[in-house]
Amino acid sequence: MSKKELVKGNIALCEGAIAAGVKAYFGYPITPQNEVPSYMSRKMVELGRVFIQAESELAAANMVLGAAVSGARAMTSSSSPGISLKQEAISYMAGMQLPALIVNVQRGGPGLGNIAGAQSDYFQAVKGGGHGDYRVIVLAPNSAQEMYEMAYDAFDLAEKYRTPVMILSDGVVGQMMEPVEFNRPGKKEFEPKDWCLNGCKGREPLSVQSLLMQEGALEQHNIKLQAKYKTIEQNEVKIETYKTEDAKVIIVAYGISSRIAKSAVKLARKEGIKAGLLRPKTLWPFPSEAITALAKNGVKFLAVELSHGQMVEDVRLAVNGKCPVEFLGKAGGGIVTEQEIVQKLRS
Amino acid sequence: MQKIFSKPESLKDVPMSYCPGCGHGIIHRLIAECIDELGIREKTIAVAPVGCAVFAYDYFNFDTTEAPHGRPPAVATGIKRANPDKFVFTYQGDGDIAAIGMAETIHAANRGENITIIFVNNANYGMTGGQMAPTTLIGQKTDTTPFGRDPKREGYPIHLCELLATLEGTTYLERVSIYNPQNIIKAKKAIKKAFQCQLDGKGFSLVEVISNCPVDWGMTTLESIKWTEETFIKTFPLGVVKDRS
Ligand SMILES: Cc1ncc(C[n+]2csc(CCOP(=O)(O)OP(=O)(O)O)c2C)c(N)n1
Ligand code: SF4
Ligand SMILES: [Mg+2]
Prior knowledge:
The complex is a heterodimer.
Chain A: E1 4-8, H1 9-19, E2 24-27, H2 35-46, E3 50-53, H3 57-69, E4 74-78, H4 80-96, E5 100-106, H5 122-126, E6 137-139, H6 144-161, E7 164-170, H7 171-175, E8 177-181, E9 207-208, H8 217-235, E10 239-242, E11 249-252, H9 255-270, E12 275-280, E13 282-284, H10 288-294, E14 300-305, H11 311-319, E15 325-329, H12 338-346
Parallel strand pairs in A: 2-3, 2-4, 4-5, 5-7, 6-7, 11-12, 11-14, 14-15
Antiparallel strand pairs in A: 1-8, 6-13, 10-12
Chain B: H1 23-38, E1 44-48, H2 56-59, E2 63-66, H3 72-82, E3 87-93, H4 94-100, H5 102-110, E4 116-121, H6 151-154, H7 160-165, E5 170-177, H8 181-199, E6 204-210, H9 214-217, H10 221-235, E7 239-243
Parallel strand pairs in B: 1-2, 1-3, 3-4, 4-6, 5-6
Antiparallel strand pairs in B: 5-7
């Protein structure tokens, strides 16, 4: 595809991954991401690539691990309860330093919750999720176009740092139909990988593992991982700002909440309220420095999320008491409205 | 002088850390010999389990990786589907394959994945100190069945080969043992046949190797061999369970 088409966010995501040369997709049905395995089951097979409907999210994520260890571009997608099951493999992939894409089209929790869009898995995505001292790069698309672009870019990013990348989307962005410009070239050439398993022909055998039992080895490995995470924090933060220059109240919102927040900023400006928006496009690394720089006397922050307050904790850490940080959110299916945000901005 | 016994190229020249008398070392060697004889060392990718054989990647002289506990069949599926030209096998214990990983095992088998599993049945969890495994015999005392396995409380030993034989997707399933030289020779034949099955593109093959764990069984090596012959293989009869290769 190279033209503009009206598609759901979930389909745009598939096209982004396909254009990026994803060789293997492993999934399991769960709403609101079902369009992904459905679309991939046809497309991947037509393209002669790998599609498996796995027996569980545990298995799907471990199949990704297997494909990734052999150097193949591999991905899985799910929604919140399924992402909990994928954490085992995500932790292993972080430890084994394997690039891969995991997509969470978030729904309401805890437990089985419901199938409406939500943003309640921020902690799980950004603070770890599985066991051990690790991070995954977390991208937060807020449109079908960005579902396409971020899925496309995720693999390069994952391979650049040899680390899993998560796209933290939500049921609204996943289901929403929007015009998408399929403007990225289909990737055919990939950077060679000297670490992947492809049989030891002409070289010494390799082992890719997270088990490091020799004295001090795991300690060294963790130091290496942390140094990598530091580099990612320095290089990969991405944000969008809207009217923050003269803003007295700055909304911080990602994903679907940022779309609503932008409309609220426009409405508030009409009322003469100097509102602005800072939208993290990467949730980890988090744009702490950009927030710190805006945290001045006379400015106030408002975090808006479809949760009961998760990302707001990182906003507070970045603001570090320099100015007030307020919160507006709801979880479990409700969407924060523009009017509710404007009302909060007035206060 | 003619050299009649040497280390297979597929084994690294390092001492193994398994307990004295443990079956894992012999099974490693049989696998290595088969891979050498089939000339596939340079296209092999092996998946080590979580269990005593987690250290397999220190001993095998070909590409290896690991899987979370019980997930080797899923990891091997990912490797093989992305690389159909490579030779992919997993090495798993009874706890790994038939308890925590049962779903992955059954579904890889049912999909007829063109992979091979070497399943080491030692009737307990060796690595964690000898707890009950799905294959622990009725009456067998383990760290977590101090009164002996009671089917009323702990159910029955799982016969994995027989279970998998009911699935259309499986091609070759055999149970062997290594408690004496004749059986070691048979075990090697079975492993080679299972590997050949994959090389010929014929689908899912699994060899269950009845092995001994003298340390966690609380026996000497000789006692463990005797128990294998007189008791263990009575519950798990040896032989070809399914062959459609
Ligand atoms: C998720 C998880 N649960 C539990 C363990 C602990 N554990 C390590 S090995 C093992 C049992 C291995 O037994 P088996 O598969 O029979 O292999 P053996 O050591 O007997 O060869 C367990 C429970 C683990 N590493 N990961
Ligand atoms: S605990 Fe048992 S299976 Fe593990 S190395 Fe020792 S003898 Fe072998
Ligand atoms: Mg065992």
